[in-house]
Design goal:
- The protein has nine helices and 21 strands.
- The protein has 433 residues and is α+β, with helices and mostly antiparallel strands.
- 24% of the residues are buried.
- Among the domains are: 73 residues, no CATH class; 92 residues, Double Stranded RNA Binding Domain (2-Layer Sandwich), CATH 3.30.160; 105 residues, no CATH class.
């Protein structure tokens, strides 16, 4: 039994908390340093196979969802919880003691021969004192203020506990999706059952033609379950640093790029025409293994011998399309096409046209953001209680000659309180004189 108590005492100790915070800092640094969510081959190519094996074995490729990251956070939460539970009763007793007379101590200041103790209390801006009697029958006055300041550290610990819980649960359960396209396109949002329609997309420019803001008007809806029910539809405007919340998810204007209309004809007859974003592809309708990629778009194409294709500006002065054609996993060709050119693949002819900008919307679902926010608010409240509400207690004891001995102390900011107390004592002496 004693061993179990010692273990719990150690888990709730400050030394254990400091060790856990160091481990948490190291874990977060690893999660930031090691690129997350990649494959073994990717890590092997970037580092080497041995390092890649270590990364995968220790789950460093997904650090914030690993068992050891969860364990650190669980122990830290238990530590903070134990600290608060252990300190709760003593803190309640200490708060109640603020209404009782203290024995003189090293932080106590006092003044003898006070005739009007109530006025002395008033000079210190203390609440109206409570009149009572000491065990020996001596008349006493006691006043205290800012007792709640004693709870500052306790409340701060509680806030940090909520912050860690909110962050940890959010990291373990959050989901992230992306949807991109040009105005008029509708995309599914992962496995949520929701769809996103891009109603409009605008690029705000400054007077010098540099980009000031990206803004997208979006509509999100859930497909109706029956033929007679109407879809649940919600609309919003999102821009950089101004996300929107819909269906419990947050929608961010993340990035933009170029898209183009890819038109395919077969034996001279139109087959299909779709808008394809740079980095995306189009499967030929009646031959799915034949794929046309739009690798990149250059609005102001410049070609220099021995160098990669580039664009001289963001204006549509000399548009060009870099494409690749695949059949299955085999590449058939790669080249740059101008607007009046096309590529012929057997009986198919592919042409690019109508360049336009697309928007990429990032969607995040984090069910515990509110908990982290609450933790931040509680932590700030704890700091305010700890540093701005200084607990002060003043008491007065009536002597046999009818005068009073006034004493007081402040558990924080004792030097400032002592200075105010001495100033009140001087004023009291001057008034008596």
């Amino acid at each position: 039994m004693n061993t179990l108590k010692r273990i719990w005492k150690w888990i709730g100790s400050m030394q254990f908390a400091i060790g856990l915070l160091v481990l948490l800092a190291v874990a977060c640094s690893i999660g930031s340093f090691v690129t997350q969510g990649q494959s073994f081959d990717w890590y092997a190519a970037r580092y080497n196979e041995r390092t890649a094996a270590i990364i995968m074995a220790l789950h460093l490729d997904d650090a914030f969802h690993s068992w050891w990251f969860l364990a650190i956070n669980v122990f830290l939460c238990v530590n903070l919880l134990l600290c608060n539970v252990v300190r709760l009763k003593p803190l309640i007793r200490r708060t109640k003691a603020e209404t009782q007379i203290d024995l003189p101590g090293e932080n106590t200041v006092r003044a003898d021969g006070v005739n009007e103790p109530e006025a002395f209390f008033a000079r210190l801006h203390m609440p109206k004192p409570v009149r009572g009697a000491a065990p020996d029958g001596t008349e006493v006055l006691v006043s205290s203020k800012n007792r709640i300041g004693l709870w500052g550290a306790w409340v701060c610990h509680l806030g940090i506990l909520l912050l860690i819980l909110g962050f940890s649960l959010g990291q373990m359960t959050h989901k992230e999706y992306v949807a991109y396209g040009v105005p008029g396109q509708t995309r599914p949002i992962g496995d949520t059952g929701l769809w996103l329609t891009i109603d409009d997309f605008q690029i705000g420019l400054r007077e010098d033609d540099t980009v000031e803001q990206y803004t997208a008007d979006i509509t999100v809806f859930r497909a109706p379950q029956g033929s007679t029910s109407a879809p649940d539809t919600r609309s919003a405007t999102v821009s950089v640093n101004h996300p929107a919340k819909l269906f419990g998810m947050t929608f961010y204007q993340n990035s933009t790029g170029w898209a183009a209309t890819v038109s395919v004809t077969k034996n001279g007859e139109p087959l299909q025409s779709e808008v394809v974003c740079a980095g995306d592809y189009l499967r030929i309708a009646d031959m799915p293994n034949l794929v046309v990629y739009l690798n990149a778009f250059y609005p102001d194409y410049v070609s220099m011998p021995g160098s990669r294709p580039m664009t001289a500006s963001g204006q549509l002065n000399n548009p060009a399309y870099l494409y690749s054609v695949y059949y299955g996993s085999d590449i058939l060709g790669m080249n740059v096409l101008m607007p009046d050119e096309s590529v012929t693949i057997d009986e198919y002819e592919v042409k690019f046209s109508d360049p336009q900008t697309y928007t990429l919307i990032q969607i995040k679902r984090d069910a515990y953001t509110w908990l982290a926010f609450l933790g931040g608010v509680v932590t700030m409240l704890g700091l305010v209680l700890a540093f701005y509400l200084l607990p002060v207690k003043v008491w007065a004891v009536r002597k046999e000659d009818g005068t009073w001995v006034v004493a007081g102390r402040s558990q924080k900011g004792g030097a400032i309180f002592a200075e105010r107390f001495q100033s009140a004592a001087i004023d009291s002496e001057q008034k008596s004189a």
